[in-house]
Write a structure and sequence with these properties.
- This protein has 20 helices and 24 strands.
């Protein structure tokens, strides 16, 4: 071989190597734009389904792609860049084809952009027409291929591809146009999502359905030719309607999502313990229930599994977009008066300390504690009744008597042991705290009732997986907690409510500002608050009438039968009053032994307790011995005869049935019997 030929060959190799090194250096010196794009904050339910998402700073919806249907990936690559997995960012074959077609037709017939080049353009928001822009896209595409895997490049495309308006990325588009995640798509849906990014504004199906359909058809026909779809699948896909409007993004647990984002501003994804289907169902129930009470009434609902401490639903308002209902305020967190819902804790403490038993007799009569003279809600007096009846009837005077004996500080300490926050106006707890004279949130109140449901073992409720935890100090003993649970479980359900053995308590705050119902079975605990967020009264609002039916409906929507309450602990004292230890047969304050003895109180001489009497016309003559006249006679809490100075009094009871007859003397002492008229 001639030396000149060898020299020429060597020169060519050297030139090639030098050119290659220069080209490699040119690509390596490419300054890459930021590859980490800001994505929407997402709040997810316990199954990973989207509860709510937030737009990024510029107002765009840009979500993590998540799991995408493989059919869409296959169609995208086949349509946009069928040699995507073979080239290094630029496809020489496509460039040659595009150049040849342009030369032959005198105009641009097809493009040569690869998916990597499209990602490069989208990352820098550069144009598509100028040759300088194309050179930059090619250089950046080559550089991207040296820094990222093919899957990472595809992920970027699926994350930032434009879909019209403020939609970016495959997941945002799938949710907006089809109302579902992109993990399972039909061929028609996948074809539309492949077609839109080429011209996102002119192919928006909600604004230009004809253009969108034509673009979808071109993708489907290309897939037929590429063998990706069969003739049958293409024909079926062509029959699917183009979506005519953009759907709203999910906004379940909207106020909870706001709170989580505010508390953790650096987090992007919040997995919660919320049951998405239950949340949606209860939000609908909340809207319907509040709607029946006028345009200013709001509602809040909290549901938890008290065995695990996981919050399953948190509805903070009737409609978070309704300013008339102050919908932007999360009423599961607002401090409100709990009304009578704290009474069970007073009784539990009294049981635990040996002050009382469910069958202990206690007085419901006029009494004053210094300058404080509590009244029952209906301003009636029942005389001497059992503690069980006092709690079931939610009487104020007996529970204040017990609170006075215990000390209100013990009730406050018990609430703190449940892990909640209770605030007393002025900072000093008085006897009125037992009637709701403090502020506590619905979530903390539900948390306190979870301790009752768990037989006195508090647990911190949480909406974040793994963050619920049992608390170290018991609320009170297991036996005391079971007694409270047993009493509450015997309350009749509200009229028309779903049946079930549910332990529950209602409450109404002073001035009818808050109506509450809190309840539990062997698995779930739930609370319902209804009222006006601004604290103004709701005339005629009672917890038993307004909130209790909603509470039972909540349990009815849990999707399972009521779970039985636990059996009594072995040491539980289950006895009638006559067999109780003497100190437990009748409640007396701790200092009763030091008080001056008084004459015998009244006693019903006739009829005897438990008697069955023939009185077809409802007339009955009652007799009283001992006590100081004048006497007040009542039947089932309603006065029938007042100012009676005789020992015999005719009463007109009104018909057959059970009656509780009570007599109160001039000293406020009372006696009662239960009879049946036949």
């Amino acid at each position: 071989m001639k030396p000149s030929v060898l020299f020429l060959a060597a020169a060519m190799l050297l030139s090639f190597a030098t050119g290659r090194d220069f080209f490699d250096g040119w690509v390596d010196r490419t300054i890459l734009p930021p590859l980490v794009t800001d994505t929407s904050v997402e709040v997810l339910d316990r199954d990973g389904q989207l509860l709510r998402a937030f737009t990024v700073a510029d107002g765009r919806w840009r979500l993590e792609p998540g799991t995408v249907d493989p059919l869409l990936i296959q169609m995208l690559v086949a349509y946009e860049d069928r040699r995507f997995f073979d080239h290094s960012g630029v496809d020489p074959v496509a460039i040659a084809r595009a150049a040849g077609q342009a030369a032959l037709h005198g105009r641009i017939v097809s493009g040569a952009s690869t998916l990597t080049m499209q990602v490069a353009r989208l990352l820098e928001d550069s144009g598509t027409g100028a040759w300088q822009g194309k050179i930059r896209q090619m250089r950046l595409a080559l550089a991207l291929e040296r820094h990222l895997t093919k899957d990472q490049i595809l992920d970027l495309y699926l994350r930032i591809a434009p879909y019209g308006g403020n939609l970016e990325g495959i997941r945002a588009a799938s949710l907006a146009y089809f109302g579902k995640e992109p993990r399972h798509l039909t061929a028609a849906e996948a074809a539309l999502l492949v077609a839109i990014p080429q011209s996102p504004e002119t192919r928006r199906p909600d604004r230009n359905p004809l253009a969108a359909q034509e673009a979808r058809t071109r993708v489907l026909e290309r897939m037929r030719g590429a063998g990706v779809l069969t003739d049958e699948k293409v024909s079926a896909a062509e029959t699917e309607l183009i979506p005519s409007e953009r759907r709203a993004f999910p906004e379940r647990a909207a106020l909870l999502a706001e709170r989580l984002r505010a508390e953790n501003p650096l987090e992007r994804h919040f997995l919660t313990t919320i049951d998405g289907e239950l949340q949606a169902s209860l939000e609908k129930l909340a809207s319907q229930s509040a709607g029946r009470g006028g345009d200013r009434l709001s509602i809040a609902i909290v549901v938890a599994d008290h065995r695990t401490g996981e919050i399953l639903a948190s509805v903070g308002t009737a409609d978070w977009g309704d300013d008339r209902r102050t919908g932007f305020v999360d009423m599961t967190q607002a401090l409100r008066s709990p009304g009578s819902t704290l009474k069970p804790f007073v009784y539990g403490l009294a049981f635990d300390e040996g002050l009382a038993h469910p069958e202990t007799l206690i007085d419901d009569r006029p009494v004053a504690f210094g300058t404080y003279a509590p009244q029952n809600f209906d301003r009636q007096f029942r005389g001497t009744i059992s503690v069980r009846e006092a709690l079931q009837q939610s009487l104020n005077i007996p529970v204040i008597s017990l609170t006075d004996a215990l000390g209100p500080a013990k009730l406050m300490a018990a609430l703190r042991r449940t892990g909640g926050r209770a605030e007393v106006p002025g900072g000093q707890a008085g006897l009125a705290v037992a009637l709701g004279g403090l502020g506590i949130s619905l979530q903390d109140l539900v948390q306190a009732y979870a301790a009752l449901a768990r037989l006195g073992q508090p647990i911190r409720l949480s909406v974040r997986p793994g963050e619920a935890e049992p608390l170290p100090q018991p609320l009170f003993g297991r036996e005391a907690a079971w007694m409270v649970d047993d009493i509450l479980s015997q309350l009749p359900p509200p009229p028309g409510a779903a049946p079930g053995r549910l332990a529950y308590k209602t409450g109404t705050s002073y001035g009818h500002r808050d109506a509450l119902a809190i309840g539990f079975d062997g698995k779930h605990v739930a609370g319902v608050w209804m009222g006006r967020p601004d604290g103004s009264p709701v005339p005629g609002a009672f917890g038993g009438e307004l909130a209790a039916p909603v509470l039972f409906e909540v349990f009815g929507r849990l999707g399972a039968q009521f779970t039985p309450l636990p059996a009594p602990p072995p040491a539980t004292l289950i006895l009638p009053n006559a067999r109780l230890p003497q100190p437990l047969q009748r409640f007396r304050p701790r200092d009763a032994i030091f008080t001056e003895a008084t004459p015998d109180g009244p006693e019903v001489a006739f009829p005897p307790d438990g008697a069955e009497i023939e009185a077809a016309d409802g007339a009955l003559t009652v007799k009283v011995r001992d006590g100081v006249p004048p006497f007040l006679w009542m039947a089932n809490g309603k006065p029938l005869a007042t100012g009676e100075r005789g020992r015999e009094t005719p009463l007109l009871l009104g018909g057959q049935g059970f009656y509780r007859l009570s007599v109160i003397d001039a000293e406020g002492r009372s006696a009662a019997v239960t009879v049946t008229l036949r």
